[in-house]
Design goal:
The protein is of the alpha+beta class. The chain is 37% helix and 14% strand. A four-stranded mixed beta sheet has the order 2-1-3-4.
Length: 182
């Protein structure tokens, strides 16, 4: 059958002359593009949520699913109002305050109790095991007023007056002697 004959028959029956492959593919499901877009959006959202949980658990330790929640920790370490990063040690709004550097996972109950009972000034706490504070922790303390060169060992208490270090106490025994003498 020739082209002319086919066209005449299609004209008589009222059908369209030619249907291309592109028209056939588009006529299958007009919502395919919307489904593809929603699927891509869902994948991107899932990746963002996974990245957030990885950062929250591994780096900032904001989410701690693997710790023992049955421990009777009566320390005042849970209040987030006095927990700071080491880089903010000299930038607090108070003119006189103490900064206590220690590992939150290895809390010394004696020191925490003495701090709570003996120190009347504001006490800020810095977690030395936090990844954000890793640049400021070393075996040997270098207690200078320049935050770029500042290093503490675990545990350390410094007294800051008007943004500069007035006194410092490094090591468990030194800290306990200082606090018992107050």
């Amino acid at each position: 059958m020739g082209r002319e004959l086919r066209r005449r028959e299609e004209k008589k029956s009222g059908k369209k002359a030619k249907v291309t492959k592109e028209k056939i593919l588009k006529s299958v499901n007009p919502y395919d593009d919307i489904y593809k877009m929603l699927k891509n959006f869902g994948i991107i959202l899932l990746v963002i949520v996974i990245i957030y949980f990885l950062v929250a658990t591994l780096i900032t330790k904001e989410l701690d699913w693997f710790s023992n929640n049955n421990s009777n920790n009566t320390n005042d370490n849970a209040s987030s109002s006095n927990i700071i990063l080491a880089k903010n040690s000299f930038m607090q709004s108070d003119s006189e305050y103490y900064v206590y550097y220690y590992d939150f996972t290895d809390t010394d109950a004696t020191i925490s109790t003495l701090i709570r009972n003996k120190l009347s000034d504001k006490v800020y706490k810095v977690n030395t095991s936090d990844a954000f504070n890793a640049n400021y922790v070393s075996e040997e303390a270098n207690l200078v007023n320049n935050i770029e060169e500042f290093k503490v060992s675990n545990p350390t208490i410094i007294r800051v007056v008007n943004g500069t270090i007035e006194t410092s106490y490094v090591g468990r025994n030194t800290i306990i002697e200082f606090l018992e003498g107050k």
